Amino acid sequence: MGRPRTPLLNRERITTTALELVDAQGDFSVPQIARRLGVQTGSVYHHVDGRDGIVELLRERVTRGIDVSALELRPWDEALAAWARSYRAAFAAHPRAIPLLMTSPVRAPRVLEQYERAVTLLLDAGFPLPDVMPVLVALENVVLGSALDLAAPEAMWEIADKAAAPRLAEALDAVGDHRADTAFELALEGFLDHARRRRERHSAP
Predict the structure, then answer these.
(1) Quick check: pTM over 0.85?
(2) Quick one: which of 43, 53, 119, 142 has the fewest CB in 10 Å?
C-alpha cells in the first residue's frame, strides 16, 4: 500500500496546531485545527475529548517546559524560586496561552502531579495546610504576570514631552535593560520573604 498523502492524525499534531493558532491569535477552534491539518472536523474529535480536551493537551505541552526537578531542591525557598523561574520561562514562550489556560480547570494528570509535588514541598517545610494553596496561587500570580510582561514592548511608557512627566522620564531612563527580569526578581524576593514570615509565625512556639 502507498503511503497516505497526509500524515496520520494524532494528538501531538492536534496539540501543535492548536498551539500555533493560540500563539498567533490567542485562541483556537476545532474547525480551524481541522482545516490546517486537511481533515474533517469530526476526525479531530476522534482523537480528543472536545475543546476542553485540547485545552488540557495545550496545558501539558506548555508546562512540559517547566523543570519539575527544581521542586526536589532544598531548602524549600530555593526550590520554589527555581520552580518559579522555570515556570515563568515556559509560559513566557507562549504568553497568549495564559488567559486560555488560567480560566479553565486544571485536569491534566501530569500537571496535577506537578502541583502535588509543590504542595508536598510546602507541607514538608512546615507550612500550615490552609496556607499552602494561597501561597502557590500567589506565586502563580507573580509568575504569570511577569510572563505576560516579558511579551510586552520593552518601552511600555511613551512620553512625547518629558517636561510633562520629568520624574517618570528620569525613572525610565534609569531602569536600564531587562526591565521585566528585574521587576520579576523583585516581586519574587518580596513574595518569598512574606512566605518565610508566614511559615515562621506558624512554627514559632
Answers:
(1) yes
(2) 43
